Amino acid sequence: MPDSRYSDLDRPPLSEAALNRALVRPGSLWTGVTVVERTGSTNADLAQAARQGTAEGAVLVAETQFAGRGRLGRVWSAPPRSGLMVSVLLRPAPPVGTLGWLPLLFGVAAASAVRRLAEVDVRLKWPNDLLIGERKLAGVLAERAGDAVVIGMGLNVSIRSDELPVQTATSLAIESGSADAAPFVDRDPLLRAVLREVETHYRDWSEAAGDADACGLRAAYQASSATIGREIRVELPGERILTGTATGIDHAGHLQVTAGGDRHALSAGDVVHVRPSA
């Protein structure tokens, strides 16, 4: 049965019922977890649901995506059930000017969960890529949908080296050394851990009215950063290039870069780490 969800025993399907039992409870941020076998983009689906009035806390997980998007319109793809393709719908109360912290918050939460469960040193490349060494493990993408924010993540779990879309990527199985010999990394506890971490950080940030210093989010991001202290090249909108040293993250979540004696605060841009840190 080649079409069976259980045809690849190394990549079992997620259980929607089990995830809801574990995550949806009175007082929880999460109001429902939906698992679909296949969709174009979990972010696009939830953004549409948000515009139709779906409540905060909806979670959508796809076993595979055929139109997943990364930053700058890049395609994010992986074999079925080899990763976590998940989006969440939030309706944040803090001021609009603080919403730029939400994708960084998700990155901090995801990195913390992966670090704890998989026992790998996960770092953050600004604004919200998860790296192991210099290889990309996951990407995070946030978008506005009316008064809601949808945040999605694609995280490589059991993908093998010969399945990588680019050689600058990696997976938890590859990093554990099991990727070419019946890879198996249980996605269920990993997803639960990520969503619980997101809930904790989101509640703290909301209670602090979006103040990333008051809730400790800026300090947590900087502590996990693979970018701060590095020589970087930033590809800016309009095909501009800025080369300099990343020195920190400001109160708005912008990347601080010193270049040619001038200081810049960047709200967008594609960062390339020029050389390994000392």
How do the helices and strands line up, and which of them pair or pack?
Elements: H1 16-23, E1 32-36, H2 42-51, E2 58-62, E3 83-90, H3 101-118, E4 122-125, E5 129-132, E6 135-145, E7 148-156, H4 172-176, H5 187-207, H6 217-224, E8 231-236, E9 240-249, E10 255-259, E11 262-266, E12 270-273
Parallel strand pairs: 1-2
Antiparallel strand pairs: 2-3, 3-7, 4-5, 5-6, 6-7, 8-9, 8-12, 9-10, 10-11
Helix pairs in contact: 3-5, 3-6
Describe the structure concisely.
Helix content is 25%, strand content 27%. The chain is an alpha+beta fold and 278 residues long.
Beta content: 25-35%
What does the largest sheet look like? 7 strands, mixed
Strand arrangement in the largest pleated sheet: 1-2-3-7-6-5-4
Helix content: 25-40%
Q: Order of helices and strands, N to C? A: HEHEEHEEEEHHHEEEEE
Total count of helical runs of at least 4 residues: 6
Task: Count the E strands.
Answer: 12
Rounded Rg: 18 Å
The rough form would be described as globular
Distance between the termini: 52 Å
Which structural class best describes the helix and strand composition? Answer: alpha+beta
Low-pLDDT segments, ≥5 res = 179-184
Describe the structure.
- The chain has 278 residues and is α+β, with helices and mostly antiparallel strands.
- It has helices spanning 16-23, 42-51, 101-118, 172-176, 187-207, 217-224; strands at 32-36, 58-62, 83-90, 122-125, 129-132, 135-145, 148-156, 231-236, 240-249, 255-259, 262-266, 270-273.
- The N and C termini lie far apart (52 Å).
- The strands form two sheets. A seven-stranded mixed beta sheet has the order 1-2-3-7-6-5-4, sandwiched between helices. The chain has a five-stranded antiparallel beta sheet with strand order 11-10-9-8-12.
- Helices cover 25% and strands 27% of the residues.
- It has six helices and twelve strands.
